[in-house]
Design goal:
- The protein is of the alpha+beta class.
- Strands 1-5-6-4-3-2 form a six-stranded mixed sheet, covered by helices on one side.
Length: 191
């Protein structure tokens, strides 16, 4: 990943959803919209210790974080077949990255919005799937919650080889089943 150098030091307050944050060893990556900003950014941070790593991997509620660092732009790909982060994130309407130099976790927000609650449910489901056998965990989180763990593509080589990749595509029938389940659930709850 190539990022443009920036000398612009900023402190931003953001909300991290545990079901969208990626922890890979001491590296933390997440997409968030800073308070008062118009657009989302990709945040890159280094975790200081195992405590932060465990907190971010085990938490199910959103966390408010104050992050100090530098805003940077994505550089275009310079080599043939190189990953083009600028083009990839452009489709998600993300133009900037934030290189976190220091961050402080303030805790969970006092009130959870409906979006926050949906992320909590998704986090709880992903944690439940974490207790399943590894391949089943990857299938369940990939098919039901759309979450891809760090080893997703390593494990999917067998699926590609067997020609079962079509199972992971969403068709209109899947959406209809999902909506009918939600409709029955809401009817059962009286909503």
């Amino acid at each position: 990943l190539q990022l443009a150098q920036s000398t612009n030091q900023k402190t931003l307050t953001v909300k991290i959803y545990p079901d969208t944050a990626k922890v890979d060893g001491a590296n933390l990556t997440f997409i968030a919209k800073p308070e008062g900003a118009d657009q989302k950014m990709v945040f890159y941070a280094r975790l200081k210790d195992k405590g932060q790593q465990r907190l971010l991997m085990n938490e199910v509620k959103p966390m408010v974080v104050e992050a100090a660092g530098k805003v940077s732009d994505f550089l275009p790909a310079t080599n043939l077949n190189q990953f083009d982060a600028r083009k990839y994130y452009h489709h998600q309407k993300i133009c900037h990255a934030f290189l976190v130099e220091n961050f402080h976790i303030k805790g969970s927000p006092p009130k959870l919005s409906i979006v926050d609650r949906i992320h909590v449910i998704r986090s709880i489901f992903n944690h439940y799937c974490g207790r399943l056998p590894e391949t089943l965990e990857i299938y369940a989180t990939g098919l039901i919650s759309g979450y891809r763990p760090n080893n997703f593509f390593d494990e999917m080589t067998g699926v590609k080889r067997l020609g079962l990749l079509h199972i992971f595509s969403i068709s209109g029938m899947h959406v209809a089943y999902f909506l009918s389940i939600i409709d029955q659930l809401m009817g059962w709850l009286g909503i």
